[in-house]
Amino acid sequence: MFERFGDLPLHVLVIHLTVVLLPVAALTGIVFAVVPRWRRVLRWPALVLGVGTVVCAYVAKKSGEAFVTAVPTLAKLVALHEKRGNLLFWYCLIFAVVAVAAFLLLRERDGRTGTSRPLELLTQAAVVVVGVLVIWQTIRTGDAGARAVWEGQLPK
What we know:
Elements: E1 4-5, E2 8-9, H1 10-34, H2 39-70, H3 79-105, E3 108-109, E4 112-113, H4 117-150
Helix pairs in contact: 1-2, 1-3, 1-4, 2-3, 3-4
């Protein structure tokens, strides 16, 4: 199921979506959490994108595993990429949870949130920290994958 899309390995297609969607979702969540006046506009996009990170990371992970199964000689080359991708999936799962929490807790009512100030600050901090981790780990994972594929193949 996760091996091919037509004649192409699914992983090659999915990673391009992943490297765009994950940082966009994280940045949307961060802005939603820290800029109260934008919450009304970003509330639903932050939720959908936050949950979407898990789906995207899961498909990228599974399609990568299928790709390595189909081409076993890649296993050693992509070991670091795979390790970082597994961690990225967990960061995305945590991000989805904090995105749902932010969606529920950071509503605006008459210019104020419906939660206590400490809970609001904790939720905002969680979204920012985990969002930054998602961006950082997306870059690290993509870099490891690109190096595995292109190292020694590009002209200097």
